[in-house]
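Narrative of accomplishments. A recurring question from our advisory board has been how the design workflow behaves on a single, concrete structure rather than in aggregate. To address it, we present the structure tokens for one chain from the evaluation set, followed by the sequence designed for it. No filtering or post-editing was applied between the two.
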């Protein structure tokens, strides 16, 4: 067989590569048929006046990729079935739009569809909507070293399913010591259940504590993530209003199975639950046989006065589940939260965790344990508390300067956002016109919301950008 193989001796492409591409493209373009015999390496080397090794290198590559096949004693042939045909499935015939109808959803699924979509940041806007941590200030190099250490120290056994379903043992002990020291929580390490963020914690509580139709008492306004979880599990929601002392306990009613509260720094209004109301809430739960879920989501950040201790430390005679997270003090992608559960309920929560996702990532837990044990967490919190206090002060001063009495900042000097009530109804239109992204308070109300209440996040903006954002709102 004689084939005119074209090569360019002046090209920088190696000759063996040119020969490889000549055959490959010729086969794919249909110039050479499957089963067709190709020249031997000796024949082609003589025809092109090249070394046989150059030809052999190209042929070996074509054989290894499935374009050529060699038959001992018979020669080399083009494969009848090409590699591209193996890699690409044949096209399916066109089907109508209704060929894959949606399966009917459960009541749980239908209720989830009612959730409003997530609002992303708008490009080019000064964004006052987030109230997460400033991740640019997190000691990432330190975290990487600790994480690498956990990979090295735990060894290959940690790549298997962990028997520590409830959480990495040393981390559970460190969490118990941390919340006792910083929040006045009364617990031991065997009451800690490590979860993938506080949202999973709430979902587990709903699954284990509620039957469809049970009533749940919620702060109004309140955290919509909790409200949606309880509603999705079929609970009836009972909104309980707030005043200057927090939850109005006389409106809790007598039929609720569970009460969800944020007593240290109520979300979103920022008010702290007074001692009188705390005692009323505990007395209500004791009389009704109800469970309390205390969500202590950002109590580390309080900028004036003494820290408010957790409600859990007062609840010796009431079933209370304490929920905490590291997302607000470290970074949101660290999906590690925790529950402090009454000892009698620990087996049920442990089993639920196993059925949900087996366990939280072990290496992250081990790195977090080292981060806490060596004092890095509390140092980071102290550093960020000073930064956030300055940013909140900047926001409040700018509001007073530009709006005066027309902007009322409600709640405690705490957390990562400010709840602001404007008397000027045109703030929203000016924000849109001047490219400032705001978040209205309306989605956090079960009942009717005030018309011009907003949640202004200050934690991720510099003081300069905060002043500029408020100036634009007033412009």
């Amino acid at each position: 067989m004689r084939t005119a193989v074209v090569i360019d001796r002046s090209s920088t492409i190696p000759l063996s590569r040119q020969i490889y591409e000549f055959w490959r493209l010729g086969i794919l373009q249909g110039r050479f048929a499957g089963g067709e015999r190709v020249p031997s390496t000796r024949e082609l080397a003589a025809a092109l006046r090249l070394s046989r090794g150059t030809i052999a290198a190209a042929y070996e590559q074509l054989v290894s990729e499935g374009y050529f096949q060699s038959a001992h004693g018979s020669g080399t042939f083009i494969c009848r079935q090409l590699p591209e045909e193996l890699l690409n499935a044949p096209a399916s015939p066109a089907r109508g739009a209704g060929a894959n109808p949606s399966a009917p959803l459960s009541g749980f699924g239908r209720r989830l569809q009612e959730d409003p979509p997530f609002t992303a940041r708008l490009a080019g806007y000064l964004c006052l909507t987030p109230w997460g941590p400033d991740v640019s200030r997190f000691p990432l190099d330190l975290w990487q070293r600790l994480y690498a250490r956990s990979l090295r120290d735990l060894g290959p056994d940690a790549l298997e399913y962990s028997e520590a379903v409830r959480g990495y043992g040393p981390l559970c002990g460190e969490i118990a010591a941390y919340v006792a020291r910083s929040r006045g929580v009364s617990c031991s390490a065997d009451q800690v259940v490590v979860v993938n963020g506080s949202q999973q914690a709430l979902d587990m509580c709903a699954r284990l504590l509620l039957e469809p139709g049970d009533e749940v008492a919620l702060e109004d306004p309140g955290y919509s993530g909790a409200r949606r979880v309880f509603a999705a599990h079929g609970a009836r929601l009972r909104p309980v209003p707030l005043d200057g002392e927090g939850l109005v306990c006389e409106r809790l009613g007598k039929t609720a199975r569970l009460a969800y509260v944020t007593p240290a720094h109520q979300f979103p209004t920022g008010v702290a639950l007074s001692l009188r109301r705390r005692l009323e809430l505990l007395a209500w739960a004791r009389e009704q046989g109800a469970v309390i879920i205390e969500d202590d989501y950002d109590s580390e950040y309080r900028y004036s006065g003494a820290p408010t201790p957790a409600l859990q430390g007062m609840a010796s005679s009431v079933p209370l589940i304490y929920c905490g997270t590291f997302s607000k003090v470290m970074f949101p992608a660290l999906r590690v939260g925790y529950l402090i559960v009454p000892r009698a309920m620990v087996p049920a929560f442990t089993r639920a965790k196993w059925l949900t996702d087996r366990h939280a990532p072990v290496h992250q837990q081990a790195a977090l344990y080292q981060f806490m044990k060596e004092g890095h967490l509390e140092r980071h919190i102290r550093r960020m508390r000073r930064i956030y206090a300055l940013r909140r002060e900047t926001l409040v001063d700018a509001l007073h300067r530009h709006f005066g009495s027309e902007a009322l900042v409600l709640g405690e000097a705490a957390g990562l956002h400010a709840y602001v009530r404007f008397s000027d109804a045109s703030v929203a239109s000016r924000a849109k016109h001047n490219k400032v992204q705001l978040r209205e308070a309306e989605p956090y109300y079960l009942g009717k919301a005030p018309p011009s209440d907003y949640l202004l996040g200050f934690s991720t903006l510099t003081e300069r950008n905060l002043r500029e954002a408020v100036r634009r709102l007033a412009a």
